[in-house]
Amino acid sequence: MTGTVAIVEDEQNIRDNVAFALRREGYKVAAFADGAAAWESFQRALPDLAVLDIIMPRMDGLELLRRIRSASATLPVVFLTSRDEEFDRVLGLELGADDYLCKPFSMRELMARIKVLFRRLALASQPSGDAEQLLELGRLVLDLRRYTASWDGAAVPLTVTEFMILHALAKRPGHVKTRDQLMDEGYPHDTFVSDRTIDSHIKRMRKKFLAIDPGFDRIDTVYGLGYRWAGAPP
User: Fold this and answer.
1) Is residue 180 part of a domain?
2) How confident is the model over 158-206, as pLDDT tens digits?
3) Which residues have C-beta within 8 Å of that of residue 20, sequence separation ≥ 6?
4) Any idea what the Cα angle at residue 108 is, between residues 169 and 50, rounded to 5°?
5) Closest to 67 in 3D by CA, of 39, 45, 30
6) What phi and psi values does residue 11 have, to the nearest 5 degrees?
7) Are residues 148 and 185 in the same domain?
8) 202 shares a domain with 104
9) Residue 135 lies in a domain
10) CA separation (Å) from 139 to 66, 160, 202?
11) pLDDT tens for residues 103-153?
12) How far apart are CA 111 and CA 151, in angstroms?
């Protein structure tokens, strides 16, 4: 699936480079230097996907995301953030961003995430019909085509990165995955992330599962090593 991607970024070099990469991949591009200009355009016609910087003049990415979500609950949104903007990054995910990348980021990584989000959007309303694309582990079901997860039949709203980390744990239940291994699974295109980033993803995943099941305890911390999905293989 291709469509129109909006890049909203006040740094012209980043904006131009992302726009160039998107066009090379076959997407139509709408580029904006600040949130206010983007929102003025979005009120006339929403893009199919948006890539937003957080810190911008006139209207920041968080406020723009709030307004996007008031108009569409499903439009995919990716945040571009600095490494020291963890609070804003977490708030953005809570407001409904689908994923984020830290600057400096790999353009290959961004293009890959955009493709996944378009694929997930296109498949969302279709029946899976392919058991080989489902990983069922007791109460957990992962749809490997849609990058979606459910627990006891309830959808767990994971970002693409969270899904990839969860899949890395669930496909080898009982086996410890180090933070480095989870970095490779969640960020496969040479994007730099820290141990703290992986810990933050795990914390948010647990919170999302606990919102569905207050007794959820399947993601174990193995101190000094990493994390594992608790329990033996089915």
Assistant:
1) yes
2) 877 888 899 999 988 989 999 888 887 876 655 555 567 788 888 888 9
3) none
4) 90
5) 39
6) -85, 110
7) yes
8) no
9) yes
10) 33, 20, 19
11) 888 898 899 889 888 887 776 656 555 556 888 988 999 988 878 899 999
12) 29
- Domain holding 186: CATH number? 1.10.10.10
Whole-angstrom Cα distance, residue 24 to residue 191?
21
First to last CA, the chain: 35
Closest CA to 152 of 86, 77, 226, 209: 209
Contacts for 147 with CB less than 8 Å, ≥ 6 apart: 116, 119, 120, 158, 160, 163, 164
Contacts of 159 (CB under 8 A, 6+ apart): 93, 97, 98, 99, 100
What number of other Cβ atoms are within 10 A of residue 127's Cβ? 6
| CA–CA dist 174, 169 (Å, integer) | 8
CA distance 216 to 154: 13
Q: Which residue has the tokens 């959007």?
A: 121
Whether 52 and 27 share a structural domain: yes
User: Structure pTM?
Assistant: 0.71
What's the chain's length in residues?
A: 234
- Answer whether residue 234 is part of any domain: no
Write the Ramachandran bin of 151: left for phi over 0, alpha for psi from -120 to 50, otherwise beta. Answer: beta
List the one residue out of 163, 180, 52, 174 whose CA is nearest residue 116. Answer: 163
In the chain, where do the E strands start and end? 4-8, 28-32, 49-53, 77-81, 99-102, 134-137, 140-143, 148-151, 154-156, 177-178, 219-222, 226-229
